[in-house]
Amino acid sequence: MRKLIIAGNWKMFKTILEAIDLANGLKRNLFDVTTIDIVICPAFTSLAEVYEVISGSNLQLGAQDMHWEEQGAFTGGVSGLMVKDAGADFVILGHSERRIYFGETSQSVNKKIKAALKFNLTPIVCVGENLSQREENRTFEVIKQQLEECLDAIEKEEARKLVIAYEPVWAIGTGKTALPKQAQEVHKYIRSLLVKFYDEDLAGNLRIQYGGSVKPENIFQLISEEDIDGALVGGASLDAELFTSIVRNSLKVGK
Ligand code: PEP
Predict the structure, then answer these.
(1) What is the 3-state secondary structure (H, E, C) of 65-116?
(2) Which one from 104, 167, 187, 225 is the annotated catalytic residue?
(3) pLDDT tens, position by position, 32-62
(4) In angstroms, what is the span from residue 73 Cα to ligand 1's centroid?
(5) DSSP 3-state of 190
(6) Which domains are delineated in the chain?
(7) How confident is the model over 72-122, as pLDDT tens digits?
(8) Ligand 1 pocket residue status of 193, Cβ below 6 Å
């Protein structure tokens, strides 16, 4: 049995006070949900303050990125040690916006995964094809290459601590959601790759989230699919009521 995991990626939104407010709203709304892992990922500047709000509650904290080095002369960088110190237990790695706007590669994601695990952070590793790759029928090839490179030299005992997020780039922030069957097809493929890279046991237990314009109206159908184990939510996670509805509608699936 894989426990569902719904994570909110707040991206570069919310001042500290706004983040505290949103965290308080979610804590109030979702206090009774124990069968789904709920993770919120504010900007670095709000991590410690949001941790103060949710500490001791059923909400968990994640960062949106980190550097692979523990410390050093990396102006503007924030390390795994630092995000752990601020209270995070999760970290999103390889988000397509980091890949597109900040030159993130699967090789750097691989280094970050290894560093995150060292600090007991659960990496949420994002993979996904862009529109032209999908139109050229290269989705599986792209996903395979990203996963191979991201997971390079990561042993099974380490890999079992990961969460994978399948996020088709063409569905992120565009309002276009992958059809549940389209997403399921890729999730199933990712699981088959995990069998090849590791084994059935790991593949059967690893959680694979879907991300891309998830809303209260489409979450039920998406996570009703066999291999979809939750969601990574961007835009709709910035609103307490919308994110609450996404979590509550997920409960109805009864996974
Ligand atoms: C994301 O940022 O990971 C994401 C999926 O964004 P949105 O839900 O806004 O498409």
Answers:
(1) CCECCCCCCCCCCCEHHHHHHCCCCEEEECCHHHHHHHCCCHHHHHHHHHHH
(2) 167
(3) 999 999 999 999 999 999 999 999 999 999 9
(4) 31
(5) helix
(6) 4-251 (3.20.20.70)
(7) 999 999 999 999 999 999 999 999 999 999 999 999 999 999 999 999 999
(8) no
